[in-house]
């Protein structure tokens, strides 16, 4: 998990990376890997996530798109 302002990002064995609003507790966005998530980081613009297969993905939060 990682925190930036009022947003929290989490990743789990379900292969999903989720962005949460910490004020409301609602899930705002979900991104997917093919394997369980090992690590996540978030800033104002991007989420970086990695999975058990060694794949690292960079997501643009607002556009909800895979950047790299």
UniProtKB/TrEMBL annotation:
**Sorted alphabetically, which keywords does the UniProt record give?**
Repeat, WD repeat
Q: What SMART domains does the entry give?
A: WD40
Where do the WD repeats start and stop?
8-30
Q: What is this protein called?
A: CMT1A duplicated region transcript 1
Q: Species name for this entry?
A: Rhinopithecus roxellana (Golden snub-nosed monkey)
Please spell out the taxonomic lineage of the organism that makes this protein: Eukaryota, Metazoa, Chordata, Craniata, Vertebrata
